[in-house]
Amino acid sequence: ENIDQGVRMWVCGGEIVAAPTSYVAHMWRTGDSKTSAHYRHVGDTMKNRARAIHAWFGEFAQKLNDFPGFAGREQRGGERWYGDMSTFDKVKQRLQGCRPFAWYLRRFKTVYEDAGIIPPDIFMLKEESSGLCIR
Length: 135
Hints:
- The chain is mostly helical.
- Helix content is 37%, strand content 0%.
- It has six helices and no strands.
- Helix 1 (2-11) packs parallel to helix 2 (45-56).
- The model has no long low-confidence stretch (mean pLDDT 82).
């Protein structure tokens, strides 16, 4: 949900509005019963993340297979292993005017690139005989 809602809000015209009299609170889970989550894990969270990424990241979604948690899912589950995307497509049609994810990256360039979160040069080195990434 955090990926879907956060990116959707920005690429489809949302904004952050200052509310000077509002308060934000964070609850930290300490392990005791007072702060424990009262819900159970349901479904495949990796599948849900992949669905949000394929819905909103556009051409950048192909990078998903470079991450260990997602690598190989396509071979095991087929091209659309993450499921039906029709609900996301309906949301995009209803919202109209959603921008591509490349716009989002340009919009927040100062946060990601200029602040050093994304290094200027990125390399993926592979061992020649096995083709595996070097760690």
